[in-house]
């Protein structure tokens, strides 16, 4: 009898322990959900220079770097690797979302431990959707490599940092992060229009590009991503780089290079039309398409009404190819315009902080489906997944 009582007590103890663990796991989910439901905890960022916070600073032999003045002339921390004079779109979205700090870059050896709790930036200047895009810029991290870095390095550490003991707890926590993807422009500028070794048509190239990006979004979804922000490609044909490449006379510079813009518009249109289909294939997800192409194009068409004066020139001094530059990046220590907020472009390709402010603001609160689709970021963050 004594042995039977001991056995029953042992089984009861195990049952209570099991119940306590299950309750802890369940309560942990609810507790985390309650404290974070009011907002977004952080962002994981993938893409190219428009959303790169400085990853290329840590890549040996990378030629696509912005870690020197006049880049960062208006940024609180000075030159950081951001390809603009001040804050980029990611920084400004972070402010809207009340994220407490700038998103650290993956390539920085110090980005580990508690520093990843509010997100990590994986973006790499000059990179693209395709693996071979960016090869002319030396060492860059392609979108595939960025996603691998998230999967193999950051994701396991994030689970540890969040102290998650069961998969449902992780799912409840990961939907409090935005997954921002801003890429594709370099696939046209430095791949299709510059090389195109296989001589494929624009339609075939674009179809392959949108399909590839869709596949990569689904990969992130399989890793737990639920809330996505996808940035369109900017109007590349209106950039000083494009107009200088085409050697347009001064009197026609405001007209933009229509061939490049048509290609980009084709990509943006196809991808926007795919948003609903992609979302249906990613259960429990929400996705916002930010049409930065239209936002910037509207500024260029009517700069004065938007608060700008110069919509075609560069704010910083850019070295041409004949001068040993690439026609895109600012000269190291070169001259810079005094009124940066009146310029659309800071260097030969990248917009000023003033333009980034307009993109981030519209992405967050615009009610126009031509600017954000199917809803804005503020509304999307309130969706319960």
Structure in words:
Helix 6 runs parallel beside helix 8 (258-280) and helix 9 (292-301) packs across helix 10. This protein is of the alpha/beta class. 41% of the residues lie in helices and 9% in strands. Mean pLDDT is 87; it is low at 5-38 and 249-253. The chain starts with a helix and ends with a helix.
- Report the biggest beta sheet as strand number plus sense, adding barrel if it closes: 6 strands, mixed
Radius of gyration: 23 Å
What is the overall silhouette?
A: globular
The SSE order reads: HEHEHHEHHEHHEHEEHEH
**Strand proportion:** 5-15%
Strand order of the largest sheet: 2-1-3-4-5-8
Question: How many helices in DSSP terms?
Answer: 11
The counted number of beta strands is 8
State the helical fraction. 40-55%
- Sheet/helix structural class: alpha/beta
Distance between the termini: 53 Å
Please state the average pLDDT score: 87
Query: Residue ranges: pLDDT <50 for 5 or more in a row?
Result: 5-38, 249-253
Task: List the keywords.
two-stranded parallel sheet; alpha/beta; 8 strands; 385 residues
Q: Concise description?
A:
By secondary structure, the protein is α/β, with parallel strands linked by helices. It has helices spanning 2-36, 89-96, 143-161, 167-174, 185-192, 202-222, 240-245, 258-280, 292-301, 353-365, 377-381, and strands at residues 42-47, 119-121, 177-182, 227-231, 286-290, 310-314, 343-345, 372-373.
